[in-house]
Amino acid sequence: MAQEVSNGNHNSSTKPPPTPSPLRFSKFFQSNLRILVTGGAGFIGSHLVDKLMENEKNEVIVVDNYFTGSKDNLKKWIGHPRFELIRHDVTEPLLVEVDQIYHLACPASPIFYKYNPVKTIKTNVIGTLNMLGLAKRVGARILLTSTSEVYGDPLEHPQTENYWGNVNPIGVRSCYDEGKRVAETLMFDYHRQHGIEIRIARIFNTYGPRMNIDDGRVVSNFIAQAIRGESLTVQLPGTQTRSFCYVSDMVDGLIRLMEGEHTGPINIGNPGEFTMLELAEAVKELINPEVEIAKVENTPDDPRQRKPDISRAKELLGWEPKIKLRDGLPLMEEDFRQRLGIPRKN
Ligand SMILES: NC(=O)c1ccc[n+]([C@@H]2O[C@H](COP(=O)([O-])OP(=O)(O)OC[C@H]3O[C@@H](n4cnc5c(N)ncnc54)[C@H](O)[C@@H]3O)[C@@H](O)[C@H]2O)c1
Ligand SMILES: O=c1ccn([C@@H]2O[C@H](COP(=O)(O)OP(=O)(O)O[C@H]3OC[C@@H](O)[C@H](O)[C@H]3O)[C@@H](O)[C@H]2O)c(=O)[nH]1
What we know:
Layout: E1 33-38, H1 43-54, E2 58-64, E3 83-87, E4 100-103, H2 110-115, H3 117-138, E5 141-147, H4 174-194, E6 198-203, E7 206-207, H5 218-228, E8 232-235, E9 241-243, E10 245-246, H6 247-259, E11 266-268, E12 273-275, H7 276-287, E13 293-296, H8 311-317, H9 325-340
Parallel strand pairs: 1-2, 1-4, 2-3, 4-5, 5-6, 6-11, 7-10, 8-13
Antiparallel strand pairs: 9-12
Helix pairs in contact: 1-6, 3-4, 5-7, 5-9, 7-9
The protein binds nicotinamide-adenine-dinucleotide and uridine-5'-diphosphate-xylopyranose (UDX).
């Protein structure tokens, strides 16, 4: 398949960026960066907020409609003078003065994004248009959390950013896959046409504390099942692979991308690749050796393999993941045990 070669920085006939908000240069606000995080009450978003809030020069505004996120994830920041939380749906326009936009708002678990597919498309298309319109009005830099799902059921392995993907445009996952592909297109069209400073991260499967217990994604399912003593539900055939990135590594990669000079798209993920049976065996061994592994029906269009080529992230961002799967799973177990109210037996 013909593929365009790029170094992560788009360079053909782009306009210069628009003038940013005058506040960015005001002597009173000079030290503060106002950062909007859409979807900041969700899993990755709330960890990103924690990291951004560590920097005393940052003011953070979260907007979220709480479809899959929760105020609980942000409770330590509510009332903090550098933090604001707004209930807002990104499919409606938003007027705020900010310097940077991390645009995460979108359900990420297949169960939730397939629940109301039309809404998922609206979130990806109208939501991203609204955030780009905001970026244009105030001259903000905007980062989109795109996904490895833009590669669909990939025919190239591992996946580099130059691969254009193998996506079913009319399947049950298309609302998300194609939604994110259009979101990427919109980002580049605003960049070329209006000079908006864009960043695109293609995120691969990410896991860690604060995932919804009933989120439906594989790592949270297996950990909750192991703690409850239920069978681990490996969807057939079990030989399909994924690459799992711990959330602190992901947040580090996203911030490096935002702060760096490269538009992307850039893959952010952990290249360690596991079959779902291997993942189940690891969870069983680490969390509850007594549980059984059950094979269950799969859902349509499940990608058979997925592994990021992260050469570009290494070279352009100086980023690579630090936490191996076997070290990350126990960190997540603690959080799940607390929320499930099931302490470890000694
Ligand atoms: N976690 C992963 O493995 C993964 C992989 C690839 C891409 N991503 C992307 O990263 C982002 C965050 O994923 P996550 O795992 O934290 O998911 P999540 O479901 O925990 O968080 C998404 C957040 O967006 C909010 N949201 C959804 N629709 C909204 C709307 N219309 N308006 C406002 N808020 C809305 C939800 O309430 C939630 O708080 C998503 O854009 C997702 O597509 C995640
Ligand atoms: O209980 C389960 C759940 C899932 N699975 C399998 O585990 C694999 C991973 O499934 P998940 O639902 O965790 O996630 P997926 O890899 O399908 O999508 C994910 O990847 C890219 C992101 O953009 C999405 O937001 C994210 O959900 C699939 O092969 C699925 O069949 C199980 O074997 N058992």
